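Chapter summary example: a protein plus iron/sulfur cluster.
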Amino acid sequence: MNKIIATEILDTIKNEYIISPKPELDYNNNFELLCAVMLSAQTTDKRVNIVTKELFMKYPTPSLMKDASLDDVISIIKSVGLANNKAKNIIEMSKELCDKYNSTVPNSLELLTSLPGVGRKTANVVLALGFNIPSIPVDTHVYRMAYRFKFIKKDESVIIAENKLMKFIDKNRWIEAHHLLLLFGRYYCKSQNPLCKECKLKKFCIENKEK
Ligand code: SF4
């Protein structure tokens, strides 16, 4: 891998597949963004958008969310899966925002990851989308693309993937790269049955099924 190849990969995805890369979660502010990303583990953005409509209408701020009944939040979000844990984390996280951050979402990786239920990927999404701070959140799709495009070797860690992507992609493209790799992985280079036949990125790929 080098910076020229990384640029060519991103340009090809952008020109041929993901013309206007943008997030698919619905949110109106950083609190809603943080909640939506926390809910998005192991489910689809579409599913999250369905439940957050009601959740954010009922509990639009950290101070209302912290006093929400656990059972009510669970019942609103139950279709996203892992509802018990997710509801508990969102309520606890809201408490901390109120107690420690004046009901605002902090803008550093360290502070974000200290919140209940907020891991590194979630924190990086909030930094990138909420604060426009360059970062490359590595979810399952971005990780798979980092491997297939040979940024990392098989079974290297998520942190190594994040570091390699940041090393070979220009900082001013980190946020865009996150969207491009995620959406290309989600819709074209899927985990099972990727669309290799017509793929214009074959030459960069370790797993071209048409070889
Ligand atoms: S050739 Fe197949 S596995 Fe490789 S990037 Fe294209 S779709 Fe993905």
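Key point: The domain at 30-131 is CATH 1.10.340.30 (Endonuclease III; domain 1).
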